[in-house]
Amino acid sequence: MAVINPEIRKEIEKYGIENFNACYNCGNCTAVCSLADENNSFPRNVLRNAVLGLEDELTTTIDPWLCYYCGECTSTCPREADPGELMMSVRRYLTTRYDWTGLSRKFYTSKKWEISAILLLSMLVMTLFIFFHGPLTTELTAEGGVKLNTFAPWKVIEMGDWIMAGLLSFFLLSNIGNMYYKIILKKKIRIPLKFYFTELWALIFNFATQYKFSKCEPKETSFFKNLKHGKYNYWIAHFLLMSGYVILFVVIVVFLSWFQTDSIHPWWHPQRLLGYYATIGLLVGITYFIFHRIKKDNEKSQHSHFTDWTFIILLLLTTISGILVHIFRINGMPYPTYYTYVAHLMILFPMLMIEVPFSKWSHLAYRPFAIYFNNLIIAAKDSKAGKKSSTS
Fold first, then answer.
1. Do 90 and 129 fall within a single domain?
2. Which residues neighbour 305 within 8 Å (Cβ) at sequence distance 6 or greater?
3. Do residues 79 and 24 lie in contact, with contact meaning Cβ atoms separated by under 8 Å?
4. Is the pLDDT of residue 375 over 90?
5. Of the candidates 39, 64, 98, which is a domain's last residue?
6. Confidence of residue 76 (pLDDT cuts 50, 70, 90)
7. Do 55 and 118 share a domain, yes or no?
8. What pLDDT, on a 0 to 100 scale, did the predictor assign at position 226?
9. How many domains does the chain have?
10. 80 pLDDT above the threshold of 90
């Protein structure tokens, strides 16, 4: 028997949506959605559960993660219930329900909590540098570059990177485990073991390409016509942003000894090419999203939660400070290099520790896992139906 929680509306409204009670469940939002199908009839089901206060159905649903927010449902809603923004708000809400620490809820519902956490982690980085940094030498390398590793030895920074990566992995993976429990185990859905392997490609493919974003824009018959008319701009911008971030994260955490070097390589060296691609990807993606959020020229840019702006500002400052470190280092400017490097890590560390497991950037993991879990459920359902038909 479904349990109704009349307070669930107020709870969801804390995550961005202002009012969705106008919905009378006409189903228009699902009819126009290019991603909804017979297995997942969103946004209608999510709207219905939210309006009725069916908390358990909301916390165990997979549908909000399968929505990539094209805004078509909102623009065609006859009651202006804003189903697209509701799906976004429910994603934030679900993030807090997966997070066993309770920090996600604090960050999403309190500006003071998020800003205080950012400042606290920034001060931690600065304090560590004040007491443990190496010599601030003005002696340059043979190529005329700054000896950054004298001030901040890569082995020490790498140790910090691994500790940070371990914490991020622990929090994010444990939250994904909680997501799995709510979506599959709590519903007592039996998944044959083989499907965990056969459907794994969906997780890898969707994480690597974010391809579902491309399905949220009106299409013509030809891929190149779509590309020519800017139909894939949102997907491309998101892919550049995501791939640039992932490349820099992997290089910094796994290959720091190769990336943070005192040697100045030629521009065509793989180290610099990867860095340039990641930087350009981040700048293009950040510029695209800031421009549209300010201009508010489409449905998905109409509403901006304060955590959206916190994330994109931190990412922009991280990118700019990283560019300055590179410029100062290769041009032999010791003190600007050292101070900017510290500022860079003071921005980067809190951004990763807050955004990856507890806020906006966690969606990068939840969405591919949602598609994976959804494929598991469908495969198990089809397998069960096939067995019944073969025995009948």
1. no
2. 15, 16, 88, 92, 108
3. yes
4. yes
5. 98
6. confident
7. no
8. 52
9. 2
10. no
End-to-end CA distance of the chain: 31
| Model confidence pLDDT, tens digit, residues 307-357 | 999 999 999 999 999 999 999 999 999 999 999 999 999 999 999 999 999
Which amino acid type is present at position 121? L
Tokens of 377: 């459920």
Same domain, 110 and 29: no
Counting beta carbons within 10 angstroms of the beta carbon of residue 201, is it exposed (0 to 12), middle (13 to 18) or buried (19 or more)?
A: exposed
The position carrying tokens 């025995």 is 391
Q: With CA atoms as reference, report the closest residue to 326 among 134, 140, 148, 132.
A: 148
| 68-77, 118-127, 229-238, range with the lowest pLDDT | 229-238
C-alpha span between 342 and 338 (Å, rounded): 6
The pLDDT score that the predictor gives to residue 119 is 97
Q: Are 73 and 64 in contact (CB under 8 A)?
A: no
* 391 located within any domain: no
Q: Name the nearest CA neighbour of 173 among 365, 384, 392.
A: 365
Global pTM?
0.90
Distance CA 232, CA 210 (A): 12
CA distance 289 to 133: 36
Note down the domain range covering 134.
103-381
26 and 107 both lie in a single domain: no
| Tens of pLDDT, residues 217-238 | 655 555 555 554 455 678 888 8
Residue matched to tokens 């993660």:
65
Are 73 and 111 contained in the same domain?
A: no
